Structure formats: C-alpha cells, structure tokens
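Morning F.,

Quick status update on the modeling queue. The single chain you submitted on Monday has been processed. Sequence for confirmation:
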Amino acid sequence: MKNLTDKYKLINGVEIPCLGFGTWQIAGETAETAVAEAIRAGYVHIDTAAAYENEEFVGAGIKRSGIKRDELFLTTKLWNNVRGYDETIAACEDSLKKLGTDYVDLYLIHWPNPLKFRSCWKEKNAETWRAFEQLYKDGKVRAIGVSNFCRRHLDALFETAEIMPSVNQIRLCPGDVDDDTVSYSRSKGILLEAYSPLGCGKAFDSDAIKEIAAKYGRSVSQICLNWSLRNGFLPLAKSVSPQHIAENADIFDFELETADVIRLNEMEGECGMHSNPDEKPF
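Structure tokens below.
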C-alpha cells in the first residue's frame, strides 16, 4: 500500500480503501468537523455505527466536505438491540436517512452475541444476515460483513448464509493479533479490519513501541498503523485533532522491517487484549 486511496479487494470484488477514519466516541458537531477534516486530509474511507450515535453528524461532515458520494467508502453497523429480518431492514433504512445517503458501502453486524438475544443469538443472527443479504441484493449496501466474530460465530453464520461476509472488524493492535480469528477469517476470504489499532491509547505508554518509533523517526501512532498494514489488516485511525488526523495518514513512505513487525506481534498484552464477545454486558 502506497497511499490513502490504495485498496484491498473484497471477496465480492468491491474495493475498499486501505486506511479508514474511525468515529467511535466522537460526538455531535465534533464528529462533523473531524469527518470533514479527515476528508480534507485525503481520507476516503469513513467508519461509523448506529451505536456511536453520530451518524447524522458523520453525514453532515461528509456533506460539508463536498466530496462526491461515489468517491467515498462509508461503513456503518447494526447495533445489538436490533435482530431479525424486518427489524434489520428498518434499522438500515434509519441509518441511511441519518447519514443522508441512499446506500452504504459496507454494513456490519456489530457484535455476534448481544445480551438481549444471548439465549438465541445463532437463530437471530441467521435472520439478521438474511436481511443483510436482501439489502445487498437491493443495492442498499455494496458489501456486508461482521464485527467481533470469532470462529464459532462465523461457523454458525455459515450454516445458513447465502452470501459470505466480506469483512470481519476486530480489535487488532501490537501484541493482540488474535491468531485464530485472523487465520480462520482469511481462510474464508474475509478481510480483517483493525479497530483500536493503538490499543485504545495504551500504545503511547509502551516503552518498546516508543523505542521502535524513535528508530524510524516516527510517532507511536504511525508505527502502529504501519504495522497494521504490514500485517495485511485495514486499520481504522481516529482523532479529532487536524494535526493528528494528517499525521495518521502519513504512513506510506516508510516500511517497518520484518524483525520489528514480529517484535510488535509478539508484545502480548502490551496494549491490552481482546475480550470474549460472548461475555459482553450489552
């Protein structure tokens, strides 16, 4: 990957820009401004979710940027309080309305085993995925996928799926590479998107990562994002600072040495670890 607009090709042939701008925990007009600034800085891939409660502001930021809709890759996600065929169709339509668009490029099931449906998650995900497939066939979404799904959740989905998920968005950062989920997803042709690529900020506390950053004359965030690309992941960078938004995009003119990639891979727990999605209290 050489620049922000280079792309991975999904299993259905749709191309997705290799670095996304994430909007988790960015609220209100701050989200609008951050999205507009990210697009100004060259990002063409924006990631949001119904649960972030900022879809309207993300849509406003896109509109404010002046970018043409077909030049942008836009992702949103179905939250845990919604499962079932009709309910999912309605939730997607609501997200489209808030975003101010008639389609999204990628639609994800946000978590596999919501608390509300813990006793019947497998059946509910099957109903929901059938709605995802219909949304795809209807052109409301260009690709469909999942988030936080482990092997067992994917296997359950595969029992009834007609269309394979294109993406699995999971927590991936130095020291937290979730080998089983990554290898299994890849065996099915599923692209791995990396959320929390800085370990929710814990990377900035790591002396080992700081040492590698100093070696390359780069910031900690640039090292983590470059590491993600070197592993073949698609990282989602997040910031509300124009300086850091631009800095996070400036990761394509250097390449981590293989030894440093391995070292970062093996820093188990350095930036925290992913948790069991079946035990989430939501």
